[in-house]
Amino acid sequence: MTATDPHAAAHRAIEAVWRIESARLIAGLARIVRDVGLAEELAQDALLIALQKWPESGVPDNPGAWLMATAKHRAIDHFRRNQRVEVKHQEIARDLDAQQDRIVEELEAAIDDPVGDDLLRLVFIACHPVLSTEARVALTLRLLGGLTTDEIARAFLVPEATVAQRIVRAKKTLADAGVPFEVPRGAELEARVQSVLEVIYLIFNEGYAATAGDDWMRPALCEDALRLGRILAELVPAEPEVHGLVALMEIQASRAKARVGPNGEPILLLEQNRAHWDHLLIGRGLAALERALRLGAVPGPYALQAAIAACHGRARTAEETDWARIAALYDALARLRPTPVVELNRGMAHAMAFGPAAGLALVEPLLAEPALESYHLLPSVRGDLLEKLGRDDEARREFERAATLTRNARERDLLLERAAALARRAAG
Questions:
Q1: Residue 217: CB partners within 8 Å, gap ≥ 6?
Q2: 89 lies in a domain?
Q3: Domain extent for 39
Q4: For the segment 18-53, what is each residue's pLDDT rounded down to a tens digit?
Q5: How many folded domains does the chain comprise?
Q6: Phi and psi angles of residue 204, each rounded to the nearest 5 degrees, phi first
Q7: Over 60: is that where the pLDDT of 153 sits?
Q8: Would residue 379 count as lying in a domain?
Q9: Is residue 5, in this structure, part of any structural domain at all?
Q10: pLDDT tens digits for 56-81?
Q11: Whole-prediction pTM value?
Q12: Residue 348: phi, psi to the nearest 5?
């Protein structure tokens, strides 16, 4: 199959459409069929039909709408087929027969209905209290983020099999519990906000620095996460951490165009052209941060991270960055969330504020952390600090180790280039 083969072009188009539309498709179907697992199956069915038809007929003008209509018709067939089975067996109560009739009627009426904000509803479904926190996050990342179980496992630093089991069990639990497909209200809404925030945060992070693949960023994930965060801020305007997370995402997203070079290569923060930062997004982020700090007596974890991002956003040049302030904010964050990853970031901040030896003193104990054993950023950060201390041979080995651990091709190239530069310097 050649690059100019129309079938190959159609398959590439289908893959691109699926990456963009799958989350919205599953969310729209889940609203109608009230079953997340069934919605995912129907979406996959629609994809298979597209793979059969589009190479011959061509990609439709509105491929997302085509997939949704196809999946809805498959849903109607599914419920009608179930009706026939129930009639044959005559073991289902009459009220369930009436319910099946109602569902089919709703499906037929929904063919041309606007999808509405189904993504947000799907987040709350995936974050329902019947699920464990780990299952809520994993399921939402799978359904809305379009992430593989491997990518989710890397985000959680747990085995892939564990994530796969969580997702399967979560979908079954939601189906068995008959969870309504709606945004909760009142006290239930407030209780579920923190889990939703964690989900949105992880989706944004996967878009901002992809764990795997050939791209340094996945901008569509950032956009979805930011959109969900903004809507959530309207739903719960008095919750400071919602505004804190929105502030963090706005400011981080402002750097998107400056983070990637003309050939897709990563550009690190201190080397970025700040003229390419989106100052409208920075302004929005600073306003959201101000609101979060005004609402909360004590800044929460998201507000603290937003305050760190704001230090970068306010600095006109890398040299003007207030690293002492950033180090103090990381100290506060470590008290609230004493995790190995936060401690690693704290070590880097202290290195910038007080010298690489100070940072290395905080990073070295993390070598004994089991959770970071396969975390590529630990040897990456350690290599950076060792290089600054003139310990080039050790630094080179750390960059090479980090390159073996990362699953992102762009990041691997960057790490190997840093290792090669140290090798060339030693040889010279």
A1: 207, 208, 209, 210, 256, 259, 260
A2: yes
A3: 1-115
A4: 766 777 888 888 888 878 888 888 888 888 898 888
A5: 1
A6: -60, -45
A7: yes
A8: no
A9: yes
A10: 888 888 888 888 889 888 888 777 77
A11: 0.74
A12: -65, -40
